Amino acid sequence: MTSPHCEKGLHIRCDVFEEMKEAERISPESLSPPSSPFPFTTAVRDSSPELMAIREMVLNATIDCFKRHGAKAMDAPVFALKEVVRCVHGDDNQLIYDLEDECGKILCLRTDLTVPYARCLATSNINNMKRYHVAKVYRREASAMIRGRYREFYQCDFDITGSSDPMIPDVECIQVLVEILDRLSIGQYVIRVNHRKLTDGILTLCGVKREQFEHVYDCIDKLNQTFWEDVRSQLIDRKGLDPTVVARIGSFIHLKGKLKRAPTAETDGRFVQAMLTYWRNSRSTS
User: 203, 213 in Cβ contact below 8 A?
Assistant: First the structure.
């Protein structure tokens, strides 16, 4: 769903329970309901006073940072029309908790906070806005138990909507995340930037044809579950990419370190030129 008033929406999401899960080393077995005479579902939990204290500390630090950057709070119903949510998830119903109201309309619990905001923008006269939304979302994932993930968890969205100078909202979103993580004193961390125009530009530089972009994304999205060699084989054997092109993709995937050391001097000029050209073309056609 898009709004004629919304040129760009950028999101920082803090899955609070995901971070706390890592700190507590929660195992899939711990997500099973305890022995009790009262019925209890799996992959959810009650929050003790100790857990609530941690949650309030994290959320207060997050909301304070959002407010310092001029964001205004918004809220939305916890349920929505299923047909609207399917605009995002398609026909994949594995994530959605179904509901039905007294009139027979098919509803569902929200799976994120982006769809309600998009609906709000599409039905309002909002042109420029900084918004934040902190609330629970629900995912009916069959793999939740395997991954040690709860089906009910918090998301913290920070959005910048409207016209602005190029890249300024992107930089501010990263700055917001840095300020939150520094205030929480979690130690060293790595911020992964997921920007479609950036990755499209990298694939263009590597020699990937535009009609092959989605096939490449389907493969590299699996890197958090498998090894590069497996992804490389899929790109060549199943997707039909040239091994030389795949090698270029791999060179970018394996880049690590400070900005001044990546890309290398040999590719730096071509990389910057390709990205600038792609960025200008994408803005002129959007």
Answer: yes
Backbone angles phi, psi at 100, to 5 degrees: -145, 130
pLDDT 10s digits, 65-97: 999 999 999 999 998 888 887 776 655 566 788
Structure-token match 């799996």, residue found: 42
Whether residue 157 contacts residue 113, with contact meaning beta carbons closer than 8 Å, is answered with yes
Place of tokens 């880049």: 255
SS3 content of the chain, % helix, strand, coil (to 5): 50, 10, 40
Residue 19: exposure state from Cβ atoms within 10 A (0-12, 13-18, ≥19): middle
Torsion of CA 160, 111, 137, 29, to 10 degrees: -130
| Whole-structure pTM value | 0.67
Tens digits of per-residue pLDDT, 249-263?
998 888 776 555 444
Helices (H), ranges, the chain: 16-24, 49-68, 82-89, 114-122, 144-147, 168-184, 196-206, 213-220, 228-233, 243-253, 265-285
* Span 107-156, pLDDT tens digits: 999 988 988 898 888 888 888 889 999 999 998 866 555 566 788 889 99
Residue 236 and residue 223: Cα distance in Å, rounded?
Answer: 16
Strand partners, 131: 72, 159
Record the tokens describing residue 79, joined without a space: 């349920």
Interaxial angle between packed helices 196-206 and 265-285, expressed in degrees from 0 to 180 and rounded to the nearest 10: 120
pLDDT digits (tens, 9 = 90+) for 30-78: 555 556 666 767 788 888 999 999 999 999 999 999 999 999 999 999 9
| CA-derived radius of gyration, the chain | 21
